């Protein structure tokens, strides 16, 4: 369907009607390219709705990366050993880098970085609601890596084949780093479970109890309540549905939990031989909508920290711009 252009046309605008016919042709060509599995580049023609969908998705993703630095940054100065501190520092820096690749990918669609950051800082834009939960213990650094980065990989691997090429290229780099994030988290938990004290094992279990349900909510609402999914799948932006990805994550994670020796906090979680998948209990979607709506445990704190970081960095941006202005005449003269 490509009635979008027609819908936005003012009545009686002859010139626009001609353009719309051209647009319809362009849209047909675009749809054919998508059907052939072709990738769309920044300079290629694309329907406005495709562009807007991508801007929303990529900018939300970028915001999630940089807000995601906050709950872990909180633990850098309290890491138990130098090795753990180095790993955590590297991971938090990776997340900052992911934000940069993604803002750059969204900029190719015509939205400036200032506009995107302004939407984040004024609360208009969303980011992944998982980062509105607090990190209360060192074990949370392991659990966030294992479950949160693990869920992120499950979500993001199919995006490496997203039809919009700049996004897909960014995702290939990001996914390589995300698998390191997941592995380091799992390894940190395994060390505590296998070589730690009873108190450390209890700390890991408590952490898994708190992060399990928010992690499986990261795949978004059930398919029948996810209005954008069908169009996004049609356009090759999304390759697997929320429920398919959630099931895949639960199947993989339930097995990893056994090796780790932790109990996942869901009494209904059990292998279903007939389905060849794990069954699991009902998800409390009211919590999900509440946290998305701004009323999670840390929403205000996270946004406050982001705005403060932006304000505190104003002098760096001003200095960089002043330096760049000074270099330009010199470069021209050379
Ligand atoms: Fe990331
Ligand atoms: Fe990550």
Task: Write structural notes for this entry.
It is a single chain. This protein has 334 residues and is mainly alpha-helical. The chain is 67% helix and 2% strand. The chain is built from 14 helices and two strands, in the order H-H-H-H-H-H-H-H-H-H-H-E-E-H-H-H. It has helices spanning 4-7, 14-35, 48-67, 69-73, 82-107, 113-121, 139-156, 165-195, 198-217, 229-234, 242-260, 285-295, 299-312, 314-333, and strands at 270-272, 277-279. The chain has a two-stranded antiparallel sheet with strand order 1-2. A hairpin with a 4-residue loop joins strand 1 (270-272) and strand 2. The longest helix is centred in the middle third of the chain and has 31 residues, at 165-195. Bound molecules: fe (ii) ion (2 copies). One fe (ii) ion is lined by residues 65, 95, 98, 174, 178. The site of one fe (ii) ion has 5 residues, from helix 7 and helix 8.
Strand adjacency order, main sheet: 1-2
Compute the number of helices: 14
How much of the sequence lies in strands comes to under 5%
Termini, distance in Å? Answer: 55 Å
Bound ligands, named by name, code or SMILES: fe (ii) ion
Overall pLDDT: 90
Poorly predicted sequence stretches spanning 5 or more consecutive residues = 1-16
What is Rg? 23 Å
What is the share of helical residues? 55-70%
Number of strands: 2
Largest sheet at a glance? 2 strands, antiparallel
* Element order: H for helix, E for strand: HHHHHHHHHHHEEHHH
Structural class assignment: mainly alpha
Outline: globular
């Amino acid at each position: 369907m490509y009635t979008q252009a027609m819908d936005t046309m003012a009545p009686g605008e002859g010139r626009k009607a001609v353009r719309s016919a051209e647009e319809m042709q362009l849209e047909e060509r675009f749809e054919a390219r998508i059907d052939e599995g072709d990738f769309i580049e920044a300079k290629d023609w694309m329907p406005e709705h495709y562009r807007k969908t991508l801007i929303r998705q990529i900018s939300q993703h970028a915001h999630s990366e940089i807000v995601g630095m906050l709950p872990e940054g909180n633990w850098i100065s309290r890491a138990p050993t130098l090795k753990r501190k180095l790993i955590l520092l590297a991971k938090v820096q990776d997340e900052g880098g992911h934000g940069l690749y993604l803002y750059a990918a969204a900029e190719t669609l015509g939205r400036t970085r200032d506009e995107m950051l302004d939407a984040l800082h004024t609360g208009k834009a969303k980011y992944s609601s998982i980062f509105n939960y607090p990190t209360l213990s060192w074990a949370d650094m392991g659990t966030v890596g294992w479950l949160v980065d693990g869920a992120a990989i499950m979500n993001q691997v199919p995006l490496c084949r997203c039809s919009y090429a700049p996004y897909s290229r960014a995702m290939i780099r990001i996914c390589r780093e995300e698998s390191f994030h997941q592995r380091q988290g799992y390894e940190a938990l395994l060390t505590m479970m296998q070589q730690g004290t009873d108190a450390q094992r209890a700390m890991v279990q408590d952490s898994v109890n708190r992060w399990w349900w928010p992690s499986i909510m990261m795949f978004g609402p059930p398919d029948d309540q996810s209005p954008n999914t069908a169009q996004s799948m049609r356009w090759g932006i999304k390759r697997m549905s929320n429920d398919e990805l959630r099931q895949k994550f639960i199947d993989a994670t339930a097995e990893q939990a056994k090796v780790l020796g932790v109990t996942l906090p869901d009494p209904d979680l059990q292998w279903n031989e007939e389905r060849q998948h794990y069954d699991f209990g009902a998800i409390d979607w009211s919590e999900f909508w509440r946290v998305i709506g701004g009323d999670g445990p840390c929403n205000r704190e996270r946004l406050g920290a982001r705005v403060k970081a932006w304000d505190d960095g104003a002098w760096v941006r001003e200095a960089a711009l002043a330096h760049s202005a000074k270099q330009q005449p010199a470069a021209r003269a050379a």
